[in-house]
Amino acid sequence: MTSKAYRLVILSLYVAMALILSYIESLIPLPLPIPGAKIGLPNIITLVSLLTLGWPLTLLVVIARIFLSGFLFGGGFSIVYSLGGGLLSLLVMSLLLHFFKDKISIILVSVFGAISHNLGQVIVAAIVVQTTSLLLYFLFLMVLAIPTGIFIGVTARELMRLLGKTTIFSKLNLPQKK
């Protein structure tokens, strides 16, 4: 059985790492004509958290990261948009991992997470500006979500592989891969 204190330490580390990745991402200018497009670096931590802690605790990681990064590097609207994208992405990835855990790769989960993150943000934007014409914008974001989702998925997969060689998560009773 894992102690609550141990889980809290892991949870805090995830929030801190996701916040650091949010900051790093804010420093990386993407040479794209699409405003708001990002790589999604904090989603590496979201995926690792989903695989190690499950969705209820990952929900805390996502919400904490969104509010902290919004207050530190963004603003009120960035929090609203990020919540729309982050929560829809978390829901989709959690459902995929729950129903297809042994049949779907972490890379594909990440791609669906990236697409749903963009969809969530576009839905929030459409509600804010009260127009559905932003759905065309979603098509451009979806094209970008595929390579970024692959990158995030590969990175999370390799991080999980490396973490599996340590004893950090031994108290979390993770399923061992052969």
Automatic annotation (TrEMBL):
Task: Name the UniProt key words of this record, in alphabetical order.
Answer: Membrane, Transmembrane, Transmembrane helix
Top-rank taxon of the source lineage equals Bacteria
Identify one Pfam family in the record.
Answer: Hpre_diP_synt_I
Membrane recorded as keyword: yes
Reply yes or no: does the keyword Transmembrane apply.
yes
Indicate the transmembrane segments per the record: 6-24, 44-67, 79-100, 107-129, 135-156
What InterPro entries does the entry give? Hpre_diP_synt_I, Hpre_diP_synth_I
**Gene3D superfamilies documented for this protein:** 1.10.1760.20
Protein name, per record: Gx transporter family protein
In which organism is this protein found? Acetobacterium wieringae
